[in-house]
């Protein structure tokens, strides 16, 4: 088994607005794992706010060594020894987990969703994210992305109500709202959510700072819309702790360390009565295709990450009638269309 | 896809002692599912105290109809429509779930544990059950079953301490204890468990009636040994409710409706910090082999059910160094060695 890492600079189709300035690229590391004539692909998304670098991921992946003979189907054995070598670096673990699952499916000749016995007809519609921008720009963006049945609005700035109003002027599609920890006052948040509930909004993500557990619990008890944890949920322990604090959780491969962890976390969240949102980073069609295989376990999907990238080296999931469907090919099913190296 | 049901009377190697009298047989229904040249096997164990009959199971399974074309790998789709037809009859659902998983693995050419990516090296030792009997008989039984590294003692009668003492005279193997809801007084139970902890006992199953939630929580808070729910846990909701009431849960395919439910319940129990025991009914090597594929997810295994049967129509799991290992053949891997019909 041979690992090859490719640091990549993903170019954004449109600049991504930040509190201060904006950025036009996002770093990632793509991983190839070669084993007995097969190649598995994985990806570590590295949004700068998480603080991990491409060098961190490359070094961590180079520390992974397995004893021969390697049993490809023993994912638990391979991943647990790899996790010990990688340490607490979820994007690196996610890249390896994806590549091993890709090999696993290719070896067995089936797409991952089929090997998990999942029912594709349960895949929910996916949303397209309208970033922090002016109301006029958001209205224009909402007009453009007609193929997405749900729009996700990034709020938490100064003109939240104006943004929602502007988008509502041009579409009656359901909206979702992500405050990204940007709200401060819990009573004001509850009032605003009451208004959002009249605007056909499906749910609200991470209203306050993730550390404000009591305030989220207070809001969840009163909110007419589901309150979903994003920044507050990275690990399985976070999912368990979300009960009674949030109505649901946003699970992302890059946060939790890959498909195996995400599958278990979705199973646990559902058992605990939590709503499940399957989300993503700004990442290539490799990571997005990987996530779509788990989408039958999610109540909502937010898998538009690859649509934001101009130089995506892969093709993968297809948007069909508003749903991101996994490729029908074995494994993750993402296909390389540009060389990763150089 | 064609279902054939076989009501079976399983003959016990030794009479099974009950509060009143004893029994020498136990009823079951074996299921064959034929699909595109493959045959999958499943089993409904029907211990009489649960109240379901072979006729109940046969009628329920005959109600199962799927729309063509049938996609064998869509286990979630097939099982959810089957569950609607079968209704609340877990042994029947377990039989169907096993047969579909057997077909699933045979179609893909791999044993189930491999398709689940599980690590066989994590399978715990299995125990052998010494039923309710006199101390002298229990001592003799403990002497005989040398190949099992753990002995499980059925307690809850009048001579619990004498039974443990008698067995301890002839073996230093670890013991486990199952009170089967037979204890009444919680202080007496705590005292007795204190003594058991000095006898190298690993855990105690279901001390009181399953309905006595507060008493179990009281005992769990104080007990030096893990307190494990058996009769109190049938469904996923029961697993979630076991947190704070028990230290762990006993998961059995026949209780929860099969491999898919058991897999999810083991995942959830582990996430909630509950210890996991994988148990069984008195059932054939088909159901036992099925359970062994999940054994890497269990802290303890109690999979001796087929060893108690004189006319087992299957061979399946092998006891190797005290561990019940799944067959290496595709699917469940149980092989028919006697005709099921007639």
From TrEMBL, chains A, B:
Q: Which SMART domains match?
A: MR_MLE (SM00922)
The source's superkingdom equals Bacteria
Q: Key word Isomerase present in the record?
A: yes
Q: InterPro entries, alphabetically?
A: DgoD-like, Dipeptide_epimerase, Enolase-like_C_sf, Enolase-like_N, Enolase_C-like, Mandelate_racemase_C, Mandelate_racemase_N_dom
What Pfam families has UniProt attached to this entry? MR_MLE_C, MR_MLE_N
Active-site positions on this chain = 154, 252
Quick check: keyword Magnesium in the entry?
A: yes
Which UniProt key words apply to this protein? Answer: Isomerase, Magnesium, Metal-binding
Q: Which residues form the Mandelate racemase/muconate lactonizing enzyme C-terminal domain?
A: 135-226
What EC identifiers does the entry list?
Answer: 5.1.1.-
Q: How is the cofactor bound?
A: Binds 1 Mg(2+) ion per subunit.
The Swiss-Prot or TrEMBL record lists the needed cofactor(s) as:
Mg(2+)
Give one GO term, molecular function aspect: metal ion binding
Binding site residues for Mg(2+): 178, 205, 230
Matching entries from PANTHER family are given as: D-GALACTONATE DEHYDRATASE-RELATED, ENOLASE SUPERFAMILY MEMBER DDB_G0284701
What family does the entry list? Belongs to the mandelate racemase/muconate lactonizing enzyme family.
Protein's name according to its UniProt entry: Dipeptide epimerase
Which organism's genome codes for this protein? Chloracidobacterium thermophilum
Taxonomic lineage: Bacteria, Pseudomonadati, Acidobacteriota, Terriglobia, Terriglobales
């Amino acid at each position: 088994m041979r690992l090859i890492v490719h640091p990549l600079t993903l170019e954004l189709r449109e600049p991504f607005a930040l509190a201060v300035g904006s950025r036009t690229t996002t770093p990632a590391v793509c991983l190839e794992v070669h084993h007995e004539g097969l190649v598995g692909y994985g990806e570590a998304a590295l949004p700068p706010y998480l603080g991990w670098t491409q060098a961190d991921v490359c070094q961590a992946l180079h520390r992974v060594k397995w004893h021969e003979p390697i049993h490809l189907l023993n994912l638990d054995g391979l991943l647990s020894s790899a996790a010990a070598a990688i340490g607490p670096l979820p994007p690196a673990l996610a890249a390896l987990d994806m590549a091993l699952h890709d090999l696993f499916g290719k070896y067995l000749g089936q797409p991952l969703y089929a090997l998990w016995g999942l029912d594709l007809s349960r895949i929910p519609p996916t949303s397209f994210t309208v970033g922090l921008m002016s109301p006029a720009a958001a209205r224009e963006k909402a007009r453009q992305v007609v193929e997405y049945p749900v729009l996700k609005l990034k709020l938490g700035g100064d003109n939240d109500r104006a943004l929602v109003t502007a988008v509502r002027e041009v579409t009656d599609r359901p909206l979702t709202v992500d405050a990204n920890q940007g709200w401060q006052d819990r009573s004001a948040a509850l009032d605003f959510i009451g208004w959002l509930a009249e605007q056909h909004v499906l749910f609200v993500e991470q209203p306050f700072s993730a550390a404000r557990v009591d305030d989220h619990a207070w809001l969840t008890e009163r909110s007419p819309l589901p309150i979903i944890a994003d920044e507050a949920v990275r690990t399985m322990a976070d999912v368990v702790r979300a009960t009674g604090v949030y109505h649901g959780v946003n699970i992302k491969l890059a946060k939790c360390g890959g498909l195996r962890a995400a599958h278990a976390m979705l199973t646990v969240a559902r058992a605990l009565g939590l709503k499940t949102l399957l989300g993503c980073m700004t990442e290539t069609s490799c990571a997005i295709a990987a996530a779509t295989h788990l989408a039958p376990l999610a109540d909502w999907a937010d898998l538009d990450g690859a649509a934001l990238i101009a130089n995506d080296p892969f093709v993968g999931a297809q948007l069909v009638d508003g749903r991101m469907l996994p490729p029908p090919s074995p494994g993750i099913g993402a296909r390389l269309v540009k060389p990763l190296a150089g």
